[in-house]
Amino acid sequence: MTATAEMLHDTVHVGKTANEAGARQNAIHWFEIPCADLERAVKFYETLLGVKLNRSIFGDSMAIFPYANGGTGGALVQRNRQKPGPDGAVVFLNCNGKLDAVISRVSSCGGLILQSKTEIEGGFGWYACIRDSEGNHVGLHSV
User: Fold this and answer.
1) Is the pTM above the cut of 0.85?
2) What's CA 45's distance to the chain center, in Å?
3) Mean pLDDT of 2-8
4) Domain for residue 18, yes or no?
5) Range of the domain at 67
6) Distance in angstroms (rounded) separating the CA atoms of residues 142 and 119
7) pLDDT at residue number 50
8) Is residue 106 a part of any domain in this protein?
């Protein structure tokens, strides 16, 4: 079992029924991906994921990824105090059922594949890692 699979298994599933594991609070409530050029980043992610981001201003210019009520949300943000880069935390975006198609669009959107599609041992799906149009290291995941 890989370290990632062990972590997922140990933190979510050990000693819990599926209902108990699902009832626990999500560790992530909101994420923000910094960008230097909001329009370029919006075009990259809308094309890559095949979704429409909602542009808003909540003190800073941002574009919000679609999410279900009560689900984990997140946005692209452009602000002076945050700069994009490859060395920060890695956010994994949900690509369920579309991972191969999303990976196939990375280069044409201006991104770079850092880790090709890789199976996560233990039945936790597949992932790939990319560098986005802003230079961020971002994960893609599908079960």
Assistant:
1) no
2) 10
3) 36
4) no
5) 3-11+28-142
6) 10
7) 96
8) yes
